[in-house]
Write a structure and sequence with these properties.
The complex is a heterodimer of chains A (103) and B (311). Chain A has 4 helices and 5 strands, in the order E-E-H-E-E-H-H-E-H. Chain A is α+β, with helices and mostly antiparallel strands and 103 residues long. Chain A has a single domain, classed as Alpha-Beta Plaits. In chain A, strand 1 (2-9) and strand 2 (12-19) form a beta hairpin. The longest helix of chain A is centred in the C-terminal third of the chain and has 7 residues, at 95-101. Chain B folds into 2 domains: 1-121 and 268-311, Nucleotidyltransferase, domain 5, CATH 3.30.420; 123-265, ATPase, nucleotide binding domain (Nucleotidyltransferase, domain 5). In chain B, strands 1-4-3-2-5-6 form a 6-stranded mixed sheet. In chain B, strands 9-8-7-10 form a 4-stranded mixed sheet, sandwiched between helices. Classes of the chains: A alpha+beta (103), B alpha/beta (311).
Chain lengths: 103, 311
């Protein structure tokens, strides 16, 4: 499942996407995130899944544009810490930051 | 003293309840319930062996537990079933953590996808849930499992509450807005503000300019449809496409949405084949409750939940 956490507003798309089929629940992303946006726990969207999965904390979902901004996702095409730490490549960011910081 | 005319609440939509006359619940093996306490409306759905037995659709009050009991009691009103007869109950919706009779909670996104799969058939791939204070675009598979989802809960544009506010402002009952929005000479340009508060200001301006009410309703419905299209395009639309939630009852928004997307919304397979003759008032708002009740049954059958039936 592709879980889009974040929002779309007049200034663009601000989504942190987690591919739950790829995520192995290793919580390396949680350790490296300087803003403490992520957590690992029960899959809220699939009641039958038993393995833990990475997700964006409930209280961060409406302000992700600002929480993720310091890592400048998309800047010089280098991945932000969470995506770099994710071995299965389950984490990605939407166009919003790329348009702001991208080269 | 001047007599003041009693204020009419134009947003106030009727509450409904229904019991399936063909089911004897005492003969059922698994009785499950789903209680969907939303930000604006609450629904309780009771299912006997995976068939719809009873439901109610009420307005949410200021107290979530009270709203949950209100809709559960309304659904079971006129039957000899009580909450003690339930094997398992799942709470969903915005107020799901405050549903006292529920043993477990599941997010409304998973429940709406599962419910739409039941109501509109397994061919449904895209579900748009237009809730009271948010809207969610969901892609799902043939079992109603969520594959992708996106949510707009940052603003009230394109939500049921936005439509209620508009009904109050224009002083026309909320259920008349859809049909009346088509009684226009030609389709007016849509309301340009995406924000409900600014849209309200824009509507006041149009009213003062003397623009006919029906034209303003058409402009508002078109704006709401356009907002949803933006979210759907971002996620990607696959047929069949179904809309759940309160706005699905507003033909003015649904028809304009179909026109803008160039696809039709899914037909009511389950309703047409089983429910139409029994007098079930079709309610798009119960999708979340149906999904929750079906999840409860599936969890019991897979041994992931234990029956709590007391009587």
């Amino acid at each position: 499942m592709l879980a889009y956490y974040g929002f779309k507003d007049g200034s663009g798309d601000w989504f942190l996407t987690i591919d739950t089929d790829k995520c192995n629940g290793c919580s390396k992303c949680v350790e490296v995130c300087p803003a403490g946006v992520l957590e690992v726990g029960e899959d809220e969207y699939d009641p039958f899944r038993e393995e833990p999965v990475a997700k964006v904390k409930q209280e961060e979902r409406k302000k992700i544009r600002y929480s993720c901004a310091p890592c400048r996702p998309g800047y010089e095409n280098s991945p932000p810490p969470c995506a770099a730490a994710c071995e299965p490549g389950a984490i990605s960011h939407s166009e919003g930051w790329r348009l702001l910081y991208g080269r | 003293m001047v007599e003041v005319e009693k204020e009419v609440e134009f947003w106030r939509w009727p509450e409904t309840a229904w019991v399936n006359p063909d089911i004897d619940w005492s003969k059922g093996k698994i009785i499950t319930a789903g209680v969907d306490v939303g930000s604006v409306s609450s629904q309780a759905v009771v299912m006997v062996d995976g068939e719809l037995y009873a439901y109610s659709n009420t307005r949410t009050g200021s107290d979530s537990p009270e709203s949950a009991w209100k809709c559960m009691n309304m659904a079971l009103n006129g039957t000899d079933m009580t909450a003690d007869n339930l094997d398992y109950c799942i709470g969903t919706g915005y107020g799901r953590v405050n549903v006292p009779m529920a043993q477990q909670t599941i997010t409304e996104i998973a429940c709406h996808a599962r419910g739409a799969n039941f109501m509109y058939g397994p061919e449904v791939r895209t579900v748009m849930d237009m809730g009271g204070q948010d809207c969610k675009a969901i892609n799902c598979d043939d079992r109603g499992k969520v594959l992708k989802f996106m949510m707009n809960d940052k603003c009230a544009a394109g939500t049921g509450r936005g439509m209620e506010v508009f009904a109050d402002l224009i002083r026309i009952p909320v259920w008349e807005i859809g049909p009346r929005s088509f009684q226009v000479e030609k389709e007016p340009p849509m309301i340009s503000s995406t924000c409900v508060v600014f849209a309200k200001t824009e509507v006041v301006g149009l009213l003062q300019e003397g623009v006919p009410e029906n034209d303003i309703m058409a402009a508002y419905c078109a704006a709401m449809a356009h907002r949803i299209v933006e979210l759907l395009n971002r996620l990607g639309i696959e047929e069949k496409f179904a809309i759940t939630g309160g706005i699905a009852k507003n033909i003015g928004v649904v028809k304009r949405l179909e026109k803008e997307l160039g696809i039709k919304t899914a037909e009511l397979v389950w309703y047409d084949s089983k429910m139409r003759d029994k007098g079930l008032p079709f309610d798009t708002q119960i999708a979340g409750g149906i999904g929750a009740a079906l999840f409860a049954k599936a969890l019991l059958e897979r041994g992931k939940a234990k029956s709590v039936r007391k009587a």
